[in-house]
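To close the chapter, one final illustration. This time we ask the reader to focus less on the individual chains and more on the assembly as a whole: which components sit near each other, and how the overall shape emerges from the parts.
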Amino acid sequence: MNDSLSQCCLCMALHLYNTLSGKIEEFRPLEDNEVRMYACGLTVYDYGHIGNFRTFIAIDVLHRFLVQSGYQVRHVMNITDVDDKIIRNSSRAAIPVKEYTAKFERAFLEDTITVNIEQPIFVRATDHIQEMAKFIAELESKGFAYRTEDGSYYFRIAKFPNYGKLSKRDFAGMEDGARVDVDEYEKDNARDFALWKSPKPGEAFWDTPIGRGRPGWHIECSVMSMETLGESFDLHAGGEDLIFPHHENEIAQSEALTGKPFAHFWFHARFLLVEGEKMSKSLGNFFTLRDLVLKGHKPSSIRYLLSSVPYRNQLNFTFDGLKQAATSVERLRNFWLRLTAANFSEGATATIVQLALETVQRMKSALEDDLNTAQAQAAIFDMVRKANAAIDNGEIRKDDVAPLLAAMDKFEEIFAVLKDDDVPKMKSILEWAKSAGREQDISNELLEIVQSGALSSEQVNHKVAEMEQARRARNFSKSDAIRAELAAAGIIVENTKDGVRWKRK
Ligand code: AMP
Ligand code: ZN
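The assembled structure is written out below.
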């Protein structure tokens, strides 16, 4: 292969960083055209925070880009509805586990829709407890697991020489048989980890053939991923905090059982910072998705900001950044509207058609380069800037509109921020806040947006078109009435030399 050809091939396929190999590799599914991917979802002991959504949106961008690249995607995401924190909180509150997690699970599913996450297949840990017990029994029969006196089960790390291959840690010299029974632990605690925990007094448990108890966190994902995707599948994803111990332990359990490679690619999103610091309740910089909406921020601005920095770079979330994201989304939406609403003269302008095609190519190359979302966004903004200038100079013709819109559509397939459905989503979070006793957190900004935005952009577009039709038919009383109706809903309609434009007050 000559140099230029090999370079060309390189730029024609998705390349992703694989934590397992420590390298950027070309991504190809193991079988045919179908990508089987698994992501660790939310632990439903609280509402999802913006760090969680940084990771889930990164995974969603991957999912969407795989679809855009022509793959069929089988994307499973688990819901961790039993782990140490859930057991602790539910037994403190003296309510059953299921009741404790139900409201957070429901909120999580709603939140994924709020930020336009392409829906994965959700699986719930508590629906797979018997399969987990069976998996542990098989590990025991192969010598990889052992039972302790209290009826708990542990994974014997010394039997799995590849332990540490994902997190690149050397555990040689580790004390055989030393154990750790908490789900989350630091790296120096690499010990035999709990697969199954016998219940302490007052704790929830399940009855299974291996005894009474509950699964450890790590076994949940091994079992659910292999059940839904097979023993070997394409990609496993999560935030970088999961590399060790969670994903290292998943590999150990799964590969010990099957003797086959577990996930081929390991995809990890870098941790989000908030105003330069690690997010924590004690620092006062901890925000759930719902907290931000209650402050009056639109889901589209949040999604845009969370996807604007490539997933392996650290994103520093700031409120200034969120305002800028809102402005960016607004500019894109206005451009879209300007293209669809204006009357252009017949014909095409070769440079504009070329610009649109190049933009599609630039976005594709950026995303193929380990999902460089920042460059993909930069490409669309270059196009919008140039095309807006061309409209101002009367250089855009009718046949340029379709290629420009096609480029916007390609962008939207990945970033999903152009469709203006923020207001109804914000309204339902407002209603939730009232029912959840969080009235004091409802900001005036949110109230204003919900009140003024009773009309969706699609409805406004429709009314503006109707108004224009009436005006052209010289039915001025009708066009004035529509203008007044729009003004009452906080919509200002302006006549410019390029046609009619509107904005919210
Ligand atoms: P958890 O509910 O803690 O199991 O987390 C759910 C997902 O969110 C996991 O993939 C975590 O790695 C990810 N996650 C948690 N905190 C952050 C953060 N600050 N930044 C990015 N991802 C995070
Ligand atoms: Zn997991």
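Residues 319-341 form the longest helix (23 residues). Residues 35-270 form a domain with the Rossmann fold fold (CATH 3.40.50.620). With these observations in hand, you are ready for the problems at the end of the chapter.
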